[in-house]
Write the structure tokens for this entry.
Amino acid sequence: MSSPCRSAVSLAALAVLTVAACDREEREPRGAPVGDSGPAAITQGTLYAGQPSPPGPSHREYEGNAYHISQGKQLYVWFNCGTCHANGGGDIGPPLMDDQWIYGGTLENIHATILQGRPNGMPSFRGKIPEQQVWEIAAYVRSLSGQTPKAASPGRSDSLNAKPDEQRMPREEPKGSSPGGPNLEGRQ
Amino acid sequence: MSRALRIGSLGLALCLALPGCQGVQSALDPAGHQAGRIAGLWWLFLGVLAVVYLVVLAGLLIAASRPRRRGVLPNGPSFAREERIERRLTGGLTAWAVGTGAIILTLTGLSYAVDRDILGLTDKAELEIEVTAKQWWWQVKYNDPVPSRSFETANEIRLPVGVPVRIVLKSQDVIHSFWVPNLHGKTDLIPGRVNETTLVADREGRFRGQCAEFCGFQHANMALDVVAMPRDRFDAWRESQLSPAAAPADDLARQGQQVFLSAACVMCHTIHGTTAASRVGPDLTHVASRPSLAAGTLPYSKGNLAGWIADPQRIKPGNQMPITSLSPDQLQGVVAYLDSLK
Amino acid sequence: MYTVGASAALEHQGRRRRCFGLNIPDAEAGADVVISRLTGAMVLVACALGAAVPAPAQDASAGKAIPAAAASPADDGNWVMPGKDYASTRYSAQDEINTGNVRDLQVAFTFSTGVERGHEAPPLVVGGTMYIVTPYPNRLFALDLTKPGAPLKWSFDPKPAASAQGVACCDYVNRGPAFADGRLFINTLDGQTIAVAAETGRELWRTQLGDINKGETITMAPLVVKGKVLVGNSGGEFGVRGWLTALDAGTGTIAWKAYSTGPDADVLIGPDYKPFYDKEKGKDLGVTSWPPDAWTIGGGTVWGWISYDPELNLIYHGTANPGPWNPEQRPGDNKWTGGIFARNPDTGQARWFYQVVPHDLYDHDAINELLLLDLPVNGAMRKTVVRPERNGYLYVLDRATGEVLSADPYAAINSSTGVDLKTGELAMVEAKAPKLGKVVRDICPTAPGAKDWNPSAFSPRTGLIYIPHMNLCMDWQSSEANYIAGTPYVGAEVRMFAGPGGHRGELSAWDPVKRAKAWSVKEDFPLWSGALTTAGDLLFYGTMEGWFKALDARTGEELWRFKTGSGIIGQPIAYRGPDGHEYVAVLSGVGGWAGAVVVGNLDPRDATAAKGFATAVADLKTKTTKGGMLYVFALPQRR
């Protein structure tokens, strides 16, 4: 291959690579279709009768999408999640940026926790937050502990800069097997 | 095409463009003192610069149309004439430069004087309105020394005719720009900063303001209605805005209020007199009294309201109002309730 | 239980006796009377002879502060209300344990509460029984002090709603029970007031006062005045409307309810209302000093301390911060939040009000303890109420009129410059005022204030007020708060850090007459425990690492310390046991706003965790763990 040809090819390859980056910002204002999020998709503990069932259908389009996560971040503030859980460090509610999940750490678990509420003080937002926005918030919650792809996680904050941006958060691996063991620290 | 036809169609096109200078969103149709001064200045600039332009063009045309002369030998028979021409040229160019300088200085001076005059209104403001830009709508607060006499509306500003009004400009997300061309020039709204401008309307009328700094997806649909009205009607309007929302009058509206307060609506909106007091979206206490919906996207009507609630993402994709999936019955109730909030 | 209407002469005598720090029982039982009279006489003789008694005479002419006479009867050895007496002195006349022997103090017995959250309550002691109320789930325990090891006599479980934990801003604390006429009164986190028979633990009545779905909880200790149980709500961070209510102690029915916002009729402002300053005068200020409707969710809760002066027949209570924290959302003075009310306990009608922090900028609840002291001010004795305020000033107000007599800084302040005594106005520093979308840096004091709820103590022997407080500063960023019922309504992010000097806590001994610090002791961690002072010239308090300390009340010299199992944020008490000996008791069990980082296992990598407190005390996680335990100390018995 001649050298101009090589450079043309590499340029083209670069251009193709650049196009791939557009995926991060694909906006779906009407919401991506969502699979089953009912009880069948959710496990809260890590103990199974017999073989563990395969994980429920997940909604990676929310977790891998910068638009949805940044929308989730905005809604997290608007709907007062941040006043109970701070910017992930916790306050009235437990922290969301560490390696512990009381009611499970999958997207479906978090979705369920937001909608159903939890007995020790987490209010139920059922009927109050539209389905798509709940998924967006759940995806953002996962980004707080580095569970979402770095390319999709928010890279800046408009706040006090109280902690590293979600993009720079180290991925916290839950101790014990997924989706997160029972709470040993007695958190709500 | 004949030359005459071409000139004729050009003239017609220009004539057709002229009405564009009129209307609810035009800096050339001033309705306020400042916009008047700005328009005057604009016309002056246009006139002066048009004359300059024509003179330059004429000069160019004359120069281009004159036959080109062959080179002239020094000490030749026409040398004296050349020298004469040279002197004339020097004189002409000097005059031209002086004239240009004078025009620029004059225009600068006038521009400065107009600026001063416009800003001079700031101290005379009798009313204060706080406008906060959000993606993609305007939150409008009427401040009052007695806090309980302040109130909030959205995407509309009403002004008493002839009264200078201080507009305090804030932004909550990105940089926007506040522009009501019929009344004044642009002023930016910058997060973390407070800017101010003053508006005064000299005549009654309905004008359109527009965000004039690209601010995202729905920048184009971020407009506001400005209504200038006589003082007494303004005061009456103000009193009506101060009252809490009307209680639902019939069963349908009552049911709609229940839906509103128990569904997603309550997460974002305020209706005074109810438990809805969130500030994400516009205050809806008197939503049915407003000329338009969704920041000037739709004229207000019951049908448009229903369409907007049913699928806001079709009408204004990417805006922050979500699809709430209300049942038709619920939707009907909510629309009936909101439509009763005059 | 002491009697309030005792004659002035007896009161005077009682005070004298107490001022000499003698352990004199209440003159009731025959034998006791003889001993007491005898001892009293001996004291008087000693006084006349000018014997070498360490404490100087407690006369007004001596230029010293004394507690309001009618509100602080002689010590009977019991501890029936968190403040010890209606004057809220937290002073015990017991002097068996004193500066000479405190180094021998040792544990007498302990008791585990089985609750892991912050224990802010004091134990109460009434006639041989100790009563403890825990944080949520608000269990009530009665310990029999007459038997060795103080076994459990009964326990009472009110079973409050678990969801209440989600609307408690700063841990699920409870600041104590109250005792009166054979009944114990407790408040539960989910907004109930419950009366229990002190002898049996049987429930007598319960009244639901708060609604958790509006964000209302109750954490304060009730106060019983003239057969009425005074209770106020919490939830200033949830957009509730603050109130103080009086319940009939016998039946639990509401006698009156005074809101802290809204029309005068709701606030119980009527013809009796005569404030000192013009700024507190006007019709329906609780409505007009707010944007429309904002007063309905404007806070002004009454979760702090109440004092009572029987002589003037006035109760004194504070009102908490206005909501939301973001001040730009509520232009105006935001009446009647952030101030002190004097009310008639019979009707609830307000007598005067002083707004300490009009249009509060920093969550400065004005709910701290109110000490009723008689002080020489400019040469004349004045009946005053003394308040170490969250904004860093120690206010001295005339308790009859509400006039500010002085307001002196006792902690580092850069957000205000002082109080104009003519107008009562607090001068704020514009550069430190929160602005939407802007980070305002280095504001002192912080949102929990120079000092939060944890009460001071006053010793008539030293004339000093012992103030456990903090030395923290903060960065603040306002944001727009959205009111969604049942969720927080705050609109601010805060990050706290150690103030000038680097220490985070301090215990200051304040001379209210000289208007200056007599001495102070620096502490590494913020102080979140109450103070106790005794006639043995001792000062007791606990630290968040778990040290329980005894200091010389005159010099501040540390004489004794004991490491408890968890951090201490409770209120120590001293009492005379059935055996006639003095005991000192405190609940250990870290928590509260300051200890949330430990009890909630918060992640201090986020500087805004626990509303900015977690990072300031991030190292607390390495110093202590949670768990509630009662510790009772006594001198070794050598018999």
Q: What stands out?
A: The first helix of chain B runs from residue 3 to 17. The helical segments of chain B are 3-17, 33-65, 79-119, 231-242, 251-262, 302-310, 312-315, 328-339. The radius of gyration of chain B is 29 Å. Chain B has three domains: 31-121, 125-241, 251-339.
